[in-house]
Amino acid sequence: MVERAGGVSYEEYVDENVLAPLGMDSSTTRQPIPDEPPSSLSHGYATDDGRPQDFEIVAGAPAGSLSTTATDMARFMLAHLDAGGEDGPSVLSPRTLDLMHAPALDEDALGGLAEGPRMTLGFFEEDRNGHRIIGHGGDTSFFHTHMQIYPEDDTGIFIGLNSGGHEKTSTLRLREAVMFGFADRYFPEQEQEEPLPAGGEVSEGPERRAHAVAGSYVTSRSMHSTFMKALDVFQETRVTVRPDLTLLVSPGPETGRPTAYEEIDPWVWREIGGQRLLTARVEDGRVEALGHGSAFSLLPVEPERSAAVALPVLVPSIGVLALVVLSWPIGALTRWRLSPPGRDRSGRPARVLTRIAVVATVVSCAGWVLAVMTIMDLGEVSPLLLRAVQGAQAVGVIGLVPAAVVVLHDVRRRTGWLRCAGGVPVLAALAGCAWFAVSFNLLVPDISY
Question: What is the percent of the chain where pLDDT is above 90?
Answer without folding.
Answer: 73
